[in-house]
Amino acid sequence: MLRHKKIILGVCGSIAAYKAALLVRLLVKSEAEVQVILTTSASDFITPLTLATLSKRPVLSQFVKDESGVWHNHVELGLWADAMVVAPASANTIAKFANGFCDNLLSATYLSARCPVFVAPAMDLDMYRHPAVQANFTKLRGYGNHIIEAGYGELASGLVGQGRMAEPEEIVQVLENHFSGVGQIV
């Protein structure tokens, strides 16, 4: 169901970024084309080399590739994709998406995307439950985005509660269901 689908995978700064490697592997194994876009802080948690090796494509993170003036066109990226998945999605990126802020390649691509967008948040339980974050989820849903709810369990802080990014297998299943028309995504 994901064969030949073009997937943008946005990876934000979060300890859950390590799960992006497995997510890329699963998507590629499903024969999807995967273009990874890292936020600046994401590379503190997972290297572009790891994700480029697994996706078999250069990882993007900046508008401009180098001093030559070659740039990564967010509009072309947004038009290229059949789906955009942001996993893990930080509270910061969720707020940018919900409020139309556009200060990095990922948020610019989001605003240019004409495809379905799936957001898999990852953050500590107090952040996840905060009324501002919940209001941003409501806004994103109102824009037609799909929130893949965070799971319950032990968090990096040592606390236990909702905030764990959905497992990569679950995210792939959500995408497969979407493209096959099975089930209703909320």
Automatic annotation (TrEMBL):
Residue ranges of every copy of the Flavoprotein domain listed in the record: 5-177
Q: Spell out the InterPro entries in the cross-references.
A: Flavin_trans-like, Flavoprotein
What the entry lists under Pfam families is as follows: Flavoprotein
Q: Which domain of life is it from?
A: Bacteria
Name this protein carries in UniProt:
Flavoprotein
